[in-house]
Amino acid sequence: MINVDCITNAEVLSLSNIDREKLCREIHQAEHFFVGERTRGMSQRKERLLSHMNNDAKQRYEELMCNTRNL
Description:
This protein is mostly helical. Helix content is about 70%, strand content about 0%. It has three helices and no strands. Helix 1 (about 15-25) packs across helix 2 (about 30-55). The two termini are about 25 Å apart.
């Protein structure tokens, strides 16, 4: 389950796993998009885990602020 908090009005769309797989079979670009998103997500999770293991709270906060400015 995912919780989404928005600071402005927004519409959230969801896609079931079955529908995602069907979309990927029918549209190659969609499959490429989802594979890329999965790869980026795994890389970001690894970076967060390593940061948590190797850095103290101050260093993690500084990383957060730096990453937030780059958005």
